[in-house]
Amino acid sequence: MARKKKKKKSKLWKSIKKVDYIRKSDNVTISMDSSWEVKCAEKLDELGVKWERTEDLKLKYIDKRAQTRNYIPDFYLPDYDIYLEVKGYWTTPARWKMRSVMDRNPGKIRLLQSLDEISGLALPILATTSSVPLG
Description:
Structural class: alpha+beta
Order of helices and strands: HEEHEEEEHEH
Number of helices: 4
Strand content: 15-25%
Helix content: 25-40%
Largest sheet: 3 strands, mixed
Shape: globular
Oligomer: single chain
Strand order of the largest sheet: 5-6-7
């Protein structure tokens, strides 16, 4: 039986420098993909919100070629049962992916699209909704 080849990461993805953050609740070092994600983690810690970040957390979505794929959210908030996605730059595939993820998980995804939105996070986090920009 032939094994599936793993898809190589794009040059852009490879160029992303990971940033380590120490979660305040348990002093665990967690690798982040951007300074915005670090700001979000800091804000969640400031609010006392329990959060998780792991590649084991996967949500299914359907890509443009009707293939089932996995989306790994930036943050999961178990006490609220919602996911946070920190997104500063939108590509067409990213828009497609997030629309599919949000359609399959209604009310479970909160998009944070600017540093102002991150710094404006407040309890209750569920009080706001998100949408994917059309652009």
